[in-house]
Amino acid sequence: MTHKPHALVTGGSRGIGAAICKTLAAAGHPILLNYRSRDEAAEAVRAEIEAAGGQCRLLKFDVVDRPATLEALAQLEAEGVHVGVLVNNAGIAKDESFPAMSYEAWTSVTRLTLDGFFNVTQPLVMPMVRKRWGRIINVASVSGVIGNRGQVNYSAAKAGLIGATKALAQEVAKRGVTVNAVAPGLVETDMIEGAPVDLILKAIPMRRMGTVAEVASLVGWLAGEDAGYVTGQAIVMSGGLG
Ligand code: NAP
What we know:
Helix content is 46%, strand content 16%. It contains 8 helices and 7 strands; from the N terminus they run E-H-E-H-E-H-E-H-E-H-H-E-H-H-E. It has helices at 15-26, 39-51, 66-78, 103-131, 143-146, 152-172, 197-203, 212-223; strands at 6-9, 31-35, 56-60, 83-88, 134-139, 177-184, 234-237. The structure holds NADP nicotinamide-adenine-dinucleotide phosphate.
């Protein structure tokens, strides 16, 4: 493929998503950077990508808001913009021990992860199938593989996302579309603010956090031609945890 297809990255304004945007832009994909609220953070990522010679367009919508998501995706379609690479990265954690967990902590985390996946992915699948090429990469978590105390909501949501990954991969494999998940362990971003990092590090065989660049590099590989025979996988990147 000489011209790389557009890559849509949800939650691309900060942390892991921002690193994924920069990696995919450096690989030649025009970036569609989705975010929900922090305009300055999104603008900063766009500026960095453009300064490096890449292309980046900001798409501000909440992936849980189905009408807003469908409207943004319909607008792309109307403009003839084809999304060949989709990275479902937007996510939140609201950790609470299960007996104390609020219904809001349960619904907000599961809805962002699962409804967000559905709202963004479903409209984009058939166009990929028609082109006989596509890459869908879901950012899950090692918590969705091994479970984690204080994260019943988050572990359930990410395990659900991994299940969706495996099922969708089977539906579209014959059409040249791959669907994979990456399942990072502890990665240094805003999301882990307030987490008991020293305690968690003791459980990580490598005794360090992962970097956003490490996760983005794996996503970049999954988005490329070399990963064409890999589908339906949840690749754990956690310094040996799990
Ligand atoms: P982060 O630094 O908190 O960034 C979250 C990003 O998601 C921001 O760009 C935010 O945009 C966006 N976002 C949040 N809610 C959204 C919504 N409803 N619609 C659209 N965008 C939304 O998080 P991160 O640590 O990079 O995490 C990225 C992904 O990696 C998540 O799925 C997370 O579960 C997963 N993960 C993280 C870790 C870790 O240790 N950090 C480990 C394993 C997996 P705004 O700022 O504009 O709201």
